[in-house]
Amino acid sequence: MQIAILLYDRFTTLDAVGPYETLGRLPGAETVFVGERTGPYRNDLGSLALTADAALSDVTSPDILVIPGGPGQLALMEDGPLHEWIRAVDATTTWTTSVCTGSLILGAAGLLKGRRATSHWLALDQLPALGAEPTGERVVFDGKYVTAAGVSSGIDMGLALAGRIAGDVVAQSIQLGIEYDPQPPYDAGAPDKAPAEITAMMRERSRFVLAGEE
């Protein structure tokens, strides 16, 4: 079972690493980081790089495709070689997945038309223009397409998909192995839970708002 995780400049680290640490632990899994070129890709903070050992042309039929999100997503919305590759491998994937604003890339490639999907809460209103039906759910299954909400939800997506693929025992073993037992010090992980001033501040700083002002 080959799992292909896309890398690009200014991706969000946990969007890629969350599925890597969950799906990558499935029995028989082979995980490959893939990019338009081989070599390092720096995250959205510029302080960490992951290496793509494979170029797009090297990965032609992965079983699972994972598209992470991040500020670099804005530069990947125009149709081109990356979208062509996404559509080509999607033709034979068992599961096509995204985390955070990775769903916007899937949508831009034309793969979410008429489908329920999710994204980071600040990007949900971008989905209808791409033909998708936005939901506020943390993980959304629609056929073979699995989209996860913001950043940390990629861990939940990976575990949910691991359960679908290998069963509850394997998925629970993975969860226990990585000791994923969230007990956050604050209950501010969703816009309807966070203090109103925090939510407003995040909206004002949203790259989607800022992009609209350019």
UniProtKB/TrEMBL annotation:
One of its GO terms (biological process) is regulation of DNA-templated transcription. This is DJ-1/PfpI family protein. Transmembrane segments: none annotated. It holds the Pfam family DJ-1_PfpI. InterPro entries: Class_I_gatase-like, DJ-1/PfpI, INH-QAR. Residues 2-161 form the DJ-1/PfpI domain. SUPFAM superfamilies: Class I glutamine amidotransferase-like (SSF52317). It comes from the Bacteria.
